Amino acid sequence: MTAHPDTLTMSMYADGALPPEAVAAVEKHVGTCSTCREQVTLLRREVDLLNETLRRTAVAEPDLPALPRFSAPASFRDFALANLTIGLVFWLGQFLWKTLLGELAVDIASRFASIYVPDTYQLVNAFVMQLLEKGTAMFYSYLNVVVLGLLVIGSLLAILKYRKNGLPPAACIGLLALPLLAPTPADALEFWREPTGTITIAAHEAYDDTMILAAEMVRIEGNVTGDVIATGRSIEVSGNISGNLIAFGDTVRISGKVGGATISAASSLMLEHADGAGDLWGAAKFISINRDSIVGGNATLAGDSVMVEGKVARDLTGFADTIDVRGELGRTLRAWAGAIRLGNDAHVHGNVTYHAASRDSLKQAGSARIDGEVIYEGQAEDFGHENRYTTARFYLWQLARLGAAFLVGLALFWLVPGLQSLSIAAGMDSLRTAGLGLLVLIAVPIIALLTAFTLVGLPLALIAVAAWILALYLAKIVLGATVGRMLLADREGIMLPLLIGLAIVLVAGNLPWIGGIVGFVLTLVGLGLLAQYLWKAVNTSRAA
């Protein structure tokens, strides 16, 4: 070794942390170089002084840790190999899980029991009904606490301010008793709830206000002047609603008149002899507008099957596997579908624009009329297999993601500068970090869901879920900055390491075939880093 070893090598040699294969070369050089020999002597003396100081203070500070041995930071190669190992472990675990559980356990269990899986709409309905049933009381309970707290604080401030001016004791007691006179907030809306029964607005009944109805079955046969929000297993509207109708249920059947917009999500949405003056927004597995129904505005429909036999006064926009039009459209038809059929009675007064697997996906009967043009706009993404790497919008979108992440990262490290000190070690440490990230990924939503079943815990659950979603986004930003600092170890500042690290993370997550697995592993590592930082920050604040 002719050149002088660098400072890091000399420090590791003096501390006894240099790899054995490099010790001989350094010892040979130190034996012939007086400058390096003096430097080693000074470094060893410094370590001895520190150890001696720690030993002298050990009596007064029994829990003081010993001077840790020097540990070289992980190189980018070690980090990449460690995370590749983590990815393979997770892939192997996923493969074994699917093989053992999916093909063995589930197959055996399915022979002895049938597993009932509730419909998505049933789960949503149950949640909404529970929220409507308990939500008002919960909201007013929180409102009472807030109002009472403000009154108590105001009374205390008034006492502290005016007591010096000779405020009588009776007046002080009166101010403290003032919060007890706070009125209970009155209900702004009256909810009708029958979780296991039926709510019926009979034909002879009329209501002049907005109504919120939650029941197993909701029937509206009378007149409602305001809006109606209904949720239940079955919803039937045969009366007149002057305002808007918002309905969520397994089956929604409308055969009356709606003066405003109609918004519905269900398993089946059926308009039978319906007269809607406003727009129709519907999402369901099966949607039908029969021959005697009218939609006075636009219709936007999404589902597996859409059948339009009636009249839509303006535009019809459909997203479905099959769209069947046999009625009249006042203006245009825009469709994203696997198949579009125009029946003999179909009449489109404007253009027909469609996205489908091929031009032949549009079938037009002989007597169907289209006053405008027929425009085919290529394959819909759900039906085609476009290579995203050949499109300009993919790269523009990635640049936009990079720019947004860079700006968010600058703001994050400006607000929390301590995140710049995060680092990743190689070997088992990287595996532990990823494991911690996996724990956060799985445990937080489960804990939030369990907490949400209590009235007091619902706001906390919402806050936890929001923080979890934010952490998922920030995880790769924090990891990108860490990777950038590993590559540019001698670079001051955060801007260039952050930009380079984010670019590497973004490219790795978009690699063909393995990009999804790589992105998942990087997210786990980033979540683990955030969790470690929060844990250390909490412990530090407790110690202080």
What does it look like?
- There is one protein chain.
- By secondary structure, this protein is an alpha/beta fold.
- It folds into 4 domains: 1-72; 120-181; 279-386, no CATH class; 389-543, no CATH class.
- The protein is built from 11 helices and 22 strands.
- It has helices at 7-15, 20-32, 34-56, 76-112, 120-162, 169-177, 392-415, 428-452, 457-487, 495-509, 515-543, and strands at residues 191-201, 206-207, 211-220, 223-224, 228-237, 240-241, 245-254, 257-258, 262-271, 275-276, 280-289, 294-295, 299-308, 311-312, 316-325, 328-329, 333-342, 347-348, 352-355, 362-364, 369-370, 374-376.
- Strands 1, 3, 5, 7, 9, 11, 13, 15, 17, 19, 20 and 22 form a 12-stranded parallel β-sheet that branches. Strands 2-4-6-8-10-12-14-16-18-21 form a 10-stranded parallel β-sheet, with no helix packed on it.
- The longest helix is centred in the N-terminal third of the chain and has 43 residues, at 120-162.
- The two termini are 49 Å apart.
- Mean pLDDT is 77; it is low at 109-118 and 182-188.
Tally of DSSP helical segments: 11
Net shape = elongated
Biggest beta sheet summary: 12 strands, parallel
Helical coverage, percent range: 40-55%
Question: What is the gist of this entry?
Answer:
This protein is of the alpha/beta class. The chain has helices at 7-15, 20-32, 34-56, 76-112, 120-162, 169-177, 392-415, 428-452, 457-487, 495-509, 515-543; strands spanning 191-201, 206-207, 211-220, 223-224, 228-237, 240-241, 245-254, 257-258, 262-271, 275-276, 280-289, 294-295, 299-308, 311-312, 316-325, 328-329, 333-342, 347-348, 352-355, 362-364, 369-370, 374-376.
